[in-house]
Design goal:
The chain has two domains: about 5-80, Ubiquitin-like (UB roll) (Roll), CATH 3.10.20.30; about 90-159, DNA polymerase, domain 1, CATH 1.10.150.120. It is built from five helices and five strands, in the order ββαβββαααα. It has helices spanning about 25-35, 90-95, 105-120, 125-130, 145-159, and strands at about 5-10, 15-20, 50-55, 60, 75. A five-stranded mixed sheet has the order 2-1-5-3-4, with helices on both faces. Strand 3 and strand 4 form a beta hairpin. The longest helix is centred in the last third of the chain and has 16 residues, at about 145-159.
Length: about 160
């Protein structure tokens, strides 16, 4: 049995001091050790994007990152998007534009879009479509997800 490593994960501004196996994935640590179950586990191979979180502001497939690699970094999950009862513009737009059906892919799309739009609010439509194409959805056919992200981007630029 391998030795455990001490890590400090800062998830949505709350610190968690953990002892983890060196091979424990970030998604497992977030869900099981930190109790933040909004981040979903899909393919576990980095293909679907359901597990996307922001690590130091950058979208990351948390199934491909070890918890020890995130030691001391700022991790933001879907639970960290809203400000209390005030939903993030992306969350509102997904509801208003029917950008979700089963909701399994939604946390990953929200975090991917938040990371990109917060870093590059004036992203071109072509580049935005390219970014969003990296996440998979089996329900909506993508059109309403794209409409929602475009609407949120316009609202975020206007602020």
């Amino acid at each position: 049995m391998s030795e455990k490593a001490a890590v400090r994960l800062s998830v949505n501004g709350q610190d968690y001091a953990l002892e983890v196996e060196p091979r424990r994935t970030l998604v497992d640590a977030i869900r099981e050790d930190c109790g933040q179950t909004g981040t979903h586990i899909g393919c576990e191979h980095g293909v679907c994007g359901a597990c996307t979180v922001l690590v130091d502001g950058e979208p990351v497939r948390s199934c491909l990152m070890f918890a020890v690699q995130a030691d001391g970094k700022a991790i933001r999950t879907v639970e960290g998007l809203a400000d209390g009862d005030n939903l993030h513009p992306l969350q509102r737009a997904f509801m208003e534009h029917h950008g979700l059906q089963c909701g399994f892919c939604t946390p990953g799309f929200l975090m991917l879009a938040a990371g990109v739009l917060e870093r590059e609010p004036d992203i071109s439509d072509e580049d935005l479509l390219d970014v969003l194409s990296s996440n998979l959805c089996r329900c909506t056919g993508y059109q309403n997800i794209i409409k929602a992200v475009r609407a949120a981007a316009a609202e975020m630029r206007a602020r």
